[in-house]
Structures are given as structure tokens and as C-alpha cells.
Amino acid sequence: MKIIVGIYFVILLIVPILPENLPYKNDIFVSILSVLLLLQLYLILFPRFKREKRIYDIKQIFKEKSIIFLSLFSLISLASLFFSSNILIGLKKYWLFFTIIPVPIILFILVKDSIVREIFIYVSLISSTFLSIWGICEYYGIIPYSLSEIYRSRVSASFSNPNHFSSYLSSTFLLLALYFLQIKNSKYKLIFMIILCLIYSNILYSETRGVWISLIIAIVFLSFFIIRYSFYIVKKNKYWLVSFSVLLILITFIYSYPTPIRHPKSISVTERLSSTSEILDMSSTKDFSLKERLYIWEIAFKMIENSPALGVGWGNFKESFKVVRNLLYTNPEFLNRFPPNIFKNIKEHAHNEFLHIGAESGILSLIFFITFLLFLFLKLKKVNYTRSEFNILFIIGIMSCTLTILVHGLVGYPLHILPTALNFWTFTAFIIVNYYRKVYQRTKEKPDNSSVLFFVL
């Protein structure tokens, strides 16, 4: 099991660092995860020692509602493949998306959670620090800029798109910020704070409005729980927290107005945010990213309208996009709003995770996915308060990070970007397993892994 844990966290470390456009990158790493999944299944079915054998009662599944709805979501998505125009493409994309879900859930049930928690935090810290240094060097021209001129000075490091880069960095930022509070050594605390400021700067460099907004919402969510429960660790570190907050405000100010530190080609934070209202003007062609999203969303809604039950088939969004778009172009009103000479690209994603799921696998699948998320967040009421204070903060931090990804998922597709998807499903595994263990501590029963076994199958 230690080898499986090691391999999983090496994957979490390497995947974001390697170039996103590396040929067969996703295929290779998901293949490794598939092997880990088979090994985990073997360990559950055939324990090394007879005394470790457990009876797998299928009724146990009903004690974990989030896994029920996650399983139903995956089953309906699988069924949608039989109604797709290209079942082979759908099967591959289904494999790429769903293989990574059960691996961390089983892993954290079979391994002591305090160990994997610490490893995950340091893996996230190392990868985010490396990428942030890469981003800084890219921003100031120390290393060659990896993206085309259309992105101006927006940094991306190993990613093919600044949005993917900032989505990954923001996915663990709040968790790392909370971990910073529990460090006791002042010297290490100062280094950690500098690293966090470096990561935050790169989130600003990316000029990704969706990520900025999602991070603000997650900070408000996190602040609510910190204020409500008056954590001692927060009170103890109030001067560090104030200093850190001031530094973040100062960095935001530096990149909001012309300063020697700011890249001459970059758009300031205030300009980037204010441009959100300007791009609603359909006559403007300077920045039409939101208009393009409206165009994609309208086509996605039409896909759902045409195939509400099981969608167009998992992984077949791109294939159906052109067909539905051509159908909508017979409507003069749509043609006038979205001229084909400007809006001509065939899109692979809906730029909204919920719309994408609804379009590809139908409304029922979307309902199951949303219900899974609701049960996930309802677990905040059932956090194991018998453990250390940092354990509570850790789970709330994980919830905040999950919220960051989901809010960005309203205008992007972070669950289809492997590094961010790995983080998201690792977060959900932490949340589910924390509640799973709490139930059995209360009932004094040995954990029965039947629900997990059912989910894997």
C-alpha cells in the first residue's frame, strides 16, 4: 500500500509540472492510475492476512449517500455512450474522466489520513512553488514565453492556457494558506508566506477573471467558518494573518496601477475586471471571450433540449457542436448575434462543467452530479470535531478549495484539465473519508469497504 501511496502522490507532483501539450501525457498517467485502481481492488478482495478479511455487505452502500449519487452519475454517463455518434471517442474520454475518481477514495480509506494529508500539502506546495517561479521568469522575460502573442503577458508555465494555469494554482491556494497558520517556526512561516505571495502573484499574472471571482467567493466562504467557530489557531496567528493580508492587498495594488514592477504589456487587475462589462457589447471585437462563451452556452442548451434524457453521449460534445451550430444558424436572430465569420471555431468543451455534463450525458446525470456535490457540502455539519482543531480547518479548507474549482467551472472546464481534476477528486476523497471514519468511530464498528467496492465496480 505504501508503494501505491507513493506512486499516487508522485503523479500529483509530476502531472502539473510536465508540459500540458506533451503527447499522450494524459493517456500515460491515467493508465498508471488504472493499474493502481486494479491493485487497490485486489487488496480489498484479497487481503494479505486472513484476520484482515471483511464481509462486504452491499447494504452498507446506503450509509454513504455521496458515493451512491457519484456512482449513479458515472453509470448514467456510461449509458449515454450507447447513444453517441462516436462510441470509441466517448469510451476513451469516459476512461480519462472517471478512472481518477475512485483511486484517492480507496487510498485514503486504506491508509492513515494524517499521513496522506501532510504528503498532499507538501506535494501541492512543491508543484505550485515550481510553477510560480516558472511563471515569474516567464513574466519578466528571463525564460522564453511559451504562449502566442494573443495572450500578451499572461503567464501559463507548463500549461497551454493561462486559465488552466491559474485554475490549478488557485485550487490549493487557500489550503496552503491555512497550513501556513499552523507552522510554529517563525523562519519557516516567513518563507511559507513569501511562497504564498509568489503563488498569488501568478494568479494575478494569468489575468483570469473567472479564477479571481471564484477565489473571492471561496475566501468569503472560508471567512464565514473561521469567524463562526473562532478557531484558536487563527487568534494565535492574528498578526501573521494581518501581515499576510496586507501583502496580498499590496500585490493587488501593484498590479492594478502602472508601476515599475508591472509588465508593460500586461492589463491591470482593475482594467481586466472592468472589461467584463465592455465585452457584452456585441460590436466590440477587442475582447469577446464572454460573448464566445454565450455562443457556446446557447449551443450547449440546444444540445440538452434536443437530447434531454442521455445527452449526445459522453465525450461527444465536439462532434455534436458543429451539427447543432449549423442548425441554429438557420435562425436569423442567432446568425445576427453570432456572425459565422467571427464565431467559427468548433469547441470541445462547453466552458461550463454543469452544461457540459448535461449536454453530454443528459439532465438525469447532471442532477445526480449536483446531488453528489450537495451531499458533499452537507458533510460540513458532520465534520469530526473530536479531532484536532487543524483537522477541522483542513476539512473546511478542502471545502473552500473544492468551491473554488466549482465556481470556476461555471465559466471554464477545470474538471477536464488533468492536474486540477486530480486535485478536485483528491479533495472529495478527503471529505468523504473524513465522514466515513467519523460514522464508525461513533458506532465503534470496523469500517466496511463494500460501498467503495461497489463504486469501483
Helix/strand order: HHHHHHHHHHHHHHHHHHH
Head-to-tail CA distance between termini: 20 Å
Q: Quick check: average pLDDT?
A: 81
- Contiguous helical run count: 19
- Poorly predicted residue ranges: 49-59, 439-447
Main beta sheet? none
Q: Which radius of gyration do the C-alpha atoms yield?
A: 23 Å
Task: Explain what you see.
This protein is mainly α and 457 residues long. It has one domain. Helices cover 68% and strands 0% of the residues. The protein contains 19 helices and no strands. The protein has helices at 2-17, 25-45, 65-80, 87-98, 102-110, 113-139, 162-182, 186-205, 209-229, 232-236, 238-254, 269-278, 289-306, 317-328, 332-337, 353-378, 389-408, 418-443, 450-456.
Helices and strands in order, then pairings?
Blueprint: H1 2-17, H2 25-45, H3 65-80, H4 87-98, H5 102-110, H6 113-139, H7 162-182, H8 186-205, H9 209-229, H10 232-236, H11 238-254, H12 269-278, H13 289-306, H14 317-328, H15 332-337, H16 353-378, H17 389-408, H18 418-443, H19 450-456
Helix pairs in contact: 1-2, 1-6, 2-5, 3-16, 3-19, 5-18, 6-7, 6-8, 7-8, 7-9, 7-17, 7-18, 8-11, 9-17, 13-14, 13-16, 17-18
